[in-house]
Amino acid sequence: MRMTSFSRQAAYAALMALLVVGGPALAQNRTTGLRLDSNRPVQIEGDQLEVLEDQGKAVFNGNVRVAQDKTVLRTGRLVIHYASGGSGGSITSSASKIEKLEATGGVNIQNGTQVATGDTGVFDMRTEVLVLSGKRVTLSEGGNVATGCKLTVSMKDGRAKLQGCGDSGSRPTILLQPQSSGN
Fold first, then answer.
1. Under CATH, which architecture does the 5-175 domain have?
2. Do 154 and 128 contact (CB within 8 A), yes or no?
3. 170 φ, ψ to 5°?
4. Is 8 within 8 Å of 126 (Cβ atoms)?
């Protein structure tokens, strides 16, 4: 079966809409919209910070905002897990390595006109995988909207997967806006 120009454009637009998201401490990557940039400063703020040195984590609560360049994550609670062993530095030392970030209490990630929302978000620094999940995970840019219940993005290989909720036949959906011909 031969693919028409219109169906190729629709398939390409659908793929691009699924691949465009931002995340905490992330900068853009051509393939997925995501790439960790550990060389750039990250600012994290919230109403309260609790450092649990004996558990190897720091917990921000209330109006949490994480920013790096044009990427901003907003959430109710952010738990930063630090790698145990190895260099043995304290959480505030430069020897600390972040292992995982967990955002709960509603997650909103914005990078320019790209927006991703969900109930929870987990970023595993070791595997470079971001998982955004909830009753309704939404990815949007310029009127194009993709929805599902779980988005998994692997930054190493540039793959993204959007899944439905698994109940009552819920499936991922996408709304594509026609592009202007620019007369």
1. Sandwich (2.60)
2. yes
3. -65, 130
4. no
Q: Where are the domains of the chain?
A: 5-175
* pTM, two decimal places: 0.74
Beta bridge partners of 116: 109, 139
Q: What is the pLDDT of residues 54-99, one digit of tens each?
A: 899 999 999 999 988 888 999 999 999 987 754 445 556 655 678 8
Q: Exposed (0-12), middle (13-18) or buried (19+): which is 90, by Cβ within 10 Å? A: exposed
Pairing of the two strands 129-141 and 159-163: unpaired
DSSP 44-102: EE-SEEEEEGGGTEEEEEEEEEEEETTEEEEEEEEEEEEPPSTT---TTSTT--EEEEE
Q: According to the model, what pLDDT value does residue 41 have?
A: 79
Pairing of strands 98-111, 57-68: unpaired
In this prediction, what percent of the chain has a pLDDT beyond 70?
69
Tokens of 22: 């931002």
